[in-house]
Specification:
By secondary structure, the protein is of the alpha+beta class. The protein folds into four domains: 43-133, Immunoglobulin-like (Sandwich), CATH 2.60.40.10; 141-228, Immunoglobulin-like (Sandwich), CATH 2.60.40.10; 237-342, Immunoglobulin-like (Sandwich), CATH 2.60.40.10; 375-554, Toll/interleukin-1 receptor homology (TIR) domain (Rossmann fold, 3-Layer(aba) Sandwich). It is built from 13 helices and 31 strands. The chain has a five-stranded mixed beta sheet, with no helix packed on it. It has a five-stranded mixed beta sheet with strand order 11-17-16-13-14, with no helix packed on it. α5 packs across α12 (527-535), α8 packs parallel to α9 and α9 packs parallel to α11.
Length: 558
């Protein structure tokens, strides 16, 4: 302290030897000559001729005080511009309002030094030197150029400089937006490039347009876009969990949720937030987090584990955010949500019930409409298995004596055979047509069964001459060859079939599929024809797709 005092007196003594010279300490003068304090250097402002420029006084005052900001110009013998009337401001193409002085349309007459001062004193003033850049002089053209660098294969947005522009709420001054042009092109351009390329480099001009008392004024800036090759930069990122992930937890359980990030700087940090508050690392708290790091080459894998000692209802109502605070890039955030695990079980049970119900309904529908579905697939879509068993006939049709006196007449039988062959395309083996005269009936019948894929037994009102021995042999042949049997019985004989049929016929009826004959009036979509065609294998030759004749149509086949 003593040394500092002695040094100060020595300096004062030296200053008295030459009173016209002062000792400058910092920005204040010490000496007998009371010179004004030093001021900051004036701010150089360059503006294109005919365009707008705004000078903003960096000093601010309270609007409620009587002290005001005073604008003046040195070339006007320090005239106070703040006192100009509205007509004088319009004549000088200026607008002065508190800390803002706007030159609406700059000309050479506006060049010079301007200053803003708090009150009428010299202390606390700020100075501006305005230079007007005309087409002839181009004195400060380089100061109106601004550079911007973008990288190929990345998005790029040109930024229009906001240097010396009017403040947002300047009285009577309204912004009309910004227009972009590329130097050498007349069409207006967009300042956003979704994927910038090298050919997008060049000079761009942005024009800020303003409206003042019905007149339009502009401010023009030049942006030099330099497109460089894309840098192979490594970006730190959170790799798990994903944003908006839902973690199912059980109430009362202990839960640990890991947030893992890959970083490239030891100063990057991973932490957890609950809402807007940072989670503490104090392990004594109900909810805390701890962090671990694993270094692999230039990568640092950081894991922040959020620990819940005991999940409560209150925990389920909050959002949890993992934050990656990186040094060389913007922060990355991932938010997760907690949900009670029990509703998931309920949803699973509900889905199971719905699936079972849907399957049950499907089975019921299939069982109820199985015949219609199979015939639709056969007739419309052609969906049926191709059979390659070298059989000559689709079915062997033969009659048996009906004891109920309700069998088919010879005419009914021929009609049925014709429908099967002509309309539905079946290739039939008929006793009357395909068995040679004089051939043993038993051998011929067994040969027909051998060469047919199915056997159709038709009740006949007349006796076809089939003995019980032949019927037994037919049964054995059908069982041995596993040939389909369709047993047609008359409608009137249904109730007395078991008592009226011989034992051999009874055995055959129990072996095969029974179809009830309801008369020749049955249509092609009737139950009789649906069942008969369903039990028969699909025909192996194309259907003719037409009715037998007009007679068959009149007889009710359709």
């Amino acid at each position: 302290m003593m040394l500092k005092t002695v040094a100060l007196f020595a300096l004062l003594f030296l200053s008295t030897l030459n009173p016209k010279k002062s000792l400058v300490v910092g920005c204040m003068s010490v000496g007998c000559g009371l010179e004004p304090p030093c001021h900051p250097r004036p701010k150089n402002v360059c503006v294109r001729a005919g365009e707008m420029v705004a000078l903003q006084c960096p000093r601010s005052i309270d609007s409620n005080t009587e002290v005001r900001l005073i604008w003046s110009r040195a070339t006007d013998q320090d005239r106070v511009l703040t006192n100009m009337t509205a007509d004088e401001q319009q004549q000088r193409s200026m607008s002065v309002h508190r800390g803002s002085l706007v030159i609406l349309s700059a000309s050479v007459e506006h060049e010079g030094k301007y200053s803003c001062t708090v009150g009428y004193g010299r202390n606390g003033s700020s100075e501006f030197v305005v230079t007007v850049n005309s087409a002839a002089s181009r004195r400060c053209e380089d100061k109106q150029n601004y550079s911007q660098t973008c990288f190929t294969q990345q998005s790029c947005k040109l930024n229009c400089p906001d240097v010396n522009v009017p403040v947002v709420h300047s009285p009577n001054i309204t912004s009309n937006g910004i227009q972009w042009y590329k130097v050498g092109e007349s069409l207006q351009k967009d300042n956003y490039f979704p994927t910038v390329e090298k050919q997008n480099s060049g000079l761009y001009t942005c024009v800020r347009s303003y409206q003042y008392q019905g007149q339009k004024y502009n401010m023009t800036f030049t942006v030099i876009l330099d497109v460089q090759p894309k840098k192979a930069e490594k970006t730190a990122a959170i790799i798990s969990p994903r944003d908006d992930d839902v973690i199912h937890v059980e109430l009362g359980s202990t839960v640990v949720i890991d947030c893992t990030a890959v970083t490239y700087s030891e100063f990057d940090d991973v932490s957890w937030l609950i809402g807007e508050f940072t989670v503490d690392q104090d392990s004594n708290l109900p909810v805390f987090f701890n962090s671990t790091r694993k270094i692999e080459g230039d990568e640092i894998q950081t894991t922040a584990s959020l620990v819940f000692r005991k999940i409560s209802e209150d925990d389920l109502s909050k959002n949890y955010t993992c934050k990656l605070a990186a040094v060389y890039q913007s922060s990355d955030f991932v938010t997760i949500h907690l949900r009670n695990a029990h509703p998931q079980y309920l949803l699973l049970c509900l889905c199971t019930v719905c699936i079972v119900a849907a399957l049950t309904a499907a089975v019921i529908v299939y069982v109820r409409f199985k015949i219609d579905i199979v015939l639709f697939l056969r007739d419309t879509l052609g969906c049926h298995a191709k059979i390659s068993d070298d059989k000559r006939y689709d079915a062997f049709v033969m009659g048996y004596k009906s004891h109920a006196d309700s069998g088919l007449s010879a005419e009914d039988r021929r009609w049925l055979e014709n429908v099967l062959e002509e309309k539905f395309g079946y290739r039939l083996c008929l006793v009357e047509r395909d068995i040679q005269p004089g051939e043993a009936l038993a051998n011929a019948v067994l040969d027909c069964i051998e060469e047919s894929r199915a056997v159709v037994l038709i009740p006949s009102s007349s006796d076809p001459g089939l003995g019980s021995g032949l019927l037994t042999a037919i049964h054995e042949a059908l069982v041995e060859r596993q040939t389909r049997l369709i047993f047609i019985e008359s409608e009137m004989g249904e109730g007395s079939a078991a008592g009226s049929l011989a034992e051999a016929l009874q055995l055959l009826s129990e072996t095969g599929k029974c179809v009830t004959w309801r008369g020749r009036g049955a249509t092609a979509s009737s139950s009789f024809w649906k069942h008969l065609r369903f039990y028969l294998l699909p025909s192996q030759r194309p259907r003719k797709g037409r009715f037998l004749s007009q007679t068959s149509y009149n007889q009710g086949l359709i």
